[in-house]
Specification:
Elements lengths: L1 E10 L4 E7 L13 E3 L5 E7 L9 E6 L1 H29 L7 H29 L6 E6 L12
Antiparallel strand pairs: 1-2, 1-5, 2-4, 3-4, 5-6
Length: 155
C-alpha cells in the first residue's frame, strides 16, 4: 500500500475528508488524481479521501492507496498508449498495400491515431476509476497527539 502523510483541513458529512499533503511521484500514476487539487501550483495539494478512521480537522493522518490499483492506473497511463501506438503502426504497415497507400505514411498515421485514441480512452477510464472506492485514497490511521497549532495557514 502506498502511503502519504497529511493534515485534515475539512471534514464533510458524506464520509470524506480533505487532506493537505505534498505531491510525490505516486501522484503521476494515480487514477484518482483528478479528485486532488493543487494549492497554488506548488508541491502542496488537497486530496479528497474516504474518512474511515473518523479523523477531525487538524489531525495528522496517514492516507493510503491500494498498490494493485496504483499499478493498474500506472499501466493505463504509461503502457497502454505506447502499446496502442505500436499496434496502430503495425496495422498501418499491414493494410497499406491493400489500399495502395504508402506503408510508412499509413504506419505513422495509424500509429498516432491509435496513440491519441488511447489517451482519450485513458481519460474516460480515469474518470470512471476515480469514482470507484478501490481507486480512492483512504485515511488509514490518525497520528494521535499531533494536532496542528495554526489552522489559518492550512485553510
Amino acid at each position: 500500500m502506498a502511503t502519504e502523510e497529511g493534515i485534515v483541513i475539512k471534514v464533510s458529512n458524506s464520509g470524506t475528508a480533505w487532506v493537505k499533503t505534498t505531491k510525490s511521484s505516486s501522484c503521476e500514476a494515480c487514477a484518482a488524481r483528478d479528485s486532488c487539487h493543487s494549492m497554488g501550483g506548488g508541491k502542496e495539494m488537497k486530496v479528497e479521501t474516504i474518512n474511515t478512521a473518523g479523523a477531525k480537522v487538524g489531525d495528522k493522518v496517514i492516507i493510503g492507496f491500494e498498490t494493485a490499483s496504483l499499478l493498474k492506473a500506472a499501466f493505463l497511463v504509461y503502457v497502454f498508449p505506447i502499446l496502442s501506438m505500436i499496434a496502430g503502426a503495425v496495422i498501418g504497415q499491414e493494410v497499406a498495400p491493400n489500399y495502395n497507400f504508402s506503408a510508412p505514411y499509413a504506419s505513422v498515421t495509424l500509429g498516432f491515431m491509435f496513440f491519441f485514441l488511447a489517451f482519450l480512452l485513458v481519460r474516460i477510464m480515469g474518470i470512471k476509476m476515480s469514482k470507484k472506492e478501490e481507486y480512492r485514497a483512504k485515511i488509514i490511521r490518525i497520528k494521535r497527539g499531533k494536532k496542528t497549532e495554526d489552522l489559518s495557514e492550512v485553510a
